[in-house]
Design a protein that fits this description.
Blueprint lengths: L8 E4 L1 H12 L5 H4 L4 H9 L2 E6 L6 E9 L9 E3 L1 H9 L6 E10 L5 E10 L13 E3 L7 E3 L7
Antiparallel strand pairs: 1-6, 2-3, 3-4, 3-5, 5-6, 7-8
Pfam family, one: DUF5318
Protein name: DUF5318 domain-containing protein
InterPro entries: DUF5318
Length: about 160
């Protein structure tokens, strides 16, 4: 039997994103403050990221989404960007009680806009087996509608 990697905890950062964009439009923040993606963040979006299917709210270029992983169970990999396939593999070997958090970040390669979209926390379950590929439905409030299915996300 297979089990989808369903997060036990999800935190949506859409309100913070909206506040940031509102502050930018009202002059409370400068473009340099919000378009501050580091070389590492841009490189991860270019190499490991997937097209987000929506435009950058600052410059209108296509956005990419990249995943960063955090957790004591993954050692040196914690705090690094990883492909969705590698994250699936890491989730499949999490032991009972171990945790992994996946941060999904949107990045604009043109202007450097970047923002944390969501944090998903996963716990290992003894004996679980995950599928090789698939998708999970995430509710969103971004430009692409209230909910959508993406083949480039975790789960089945």
């Amino acid at each position: 039997m297979t089990h989808s990697p369903v997060p036990y905890r999800s935190v949506d950062h859409e309100l913070d994103r909206r506040r940031t964009l509102r502050a930018l439009s009202r002059g409370g923040m400068s473009r340099a403050e919000v378009c501050d993606a580091t070389r590492e963040v841009r490189a991860s979006a270019e190499v490991l990221g997937v097209p987000a299917g929506r435009a950058c709210p600052v410059c209108g270029a296509d956005l990419r989404e990249t995943q960063w992983i955090h957790g004591t169970a993954i050692g040196e990999k914690s705090g690094t960007a990883r492909s969705l396939a590698e994250i699936r593999q890491l989730l499949s070997v999490l032991r009972g009680g171990e945790e992994l958090t996946v941060h999904t970040v949107e990045v604009c390669l043109r202007c450097g806009w970047n923002h944390l979209l969501r944090e998903d926390g996963y716990r290992g379950v003894a004996g679980k087996v995950l599928p090789e590929s698939g998708s999970v439905e995430y509710p969103t409030t971004y430009d692409d509608g209230p909910g959508h299915r993406r083949e480039d996300q975790l789960g089945d």
